[in-house]
Amino acid sequence: MKIDKINDTYYAGFEGEPEIRLIYTNSDESYVLKIWNGYFDTLLDCLIQIEPTQSNILSEYYAHEGWYEESPWEVKNIRETLQLFDSFDIKYLTEEEAKSLTNILPVLPGLKDNIIILLQKAINRNGNVFIEYD
Questions:
Q1: Measured between alpha carbons, how far is 91 from 1 in angstroms, rounded to an integer?
Q2: What gap in Å lies between CA 73 and CA 50, rounded to an integer?
Q3: Which one, 50, 82, 100, 114, has the greatest CB density within 10 A?
Q4: Which residues contact 6 (CB under 8 A, 6 or more apart)?
């Protein structure tokens, strides 16, 4: 697979630590969003607080399956995953949760937006999305 663009904004400074790659690809192009695992885990932990874990990506995360066992792992229901990330809002966090995430919290809204853009691109351009864990 030829990679056309890599966004490593959410991994810069964490080189050598666990990395998640969200990969959008179709027959014409591919795009990679590299994320420090700490950011991705925190975002999913926050989503678990407000969404049921039946969502395909949350159930895989909660059970430590999916991309943890098989990489790359294909996101099967891109629309559902888009709705899931779109539902995240910092205001849903308790004051205690927000306090414990002081260093990470400011990054999460931008990360969420970048994930939504990637998922929307896959929907609009009939592409696939994969998660790789490294």
A1: 39
A2: 24
A3: 82
A4: 31, 32, 34
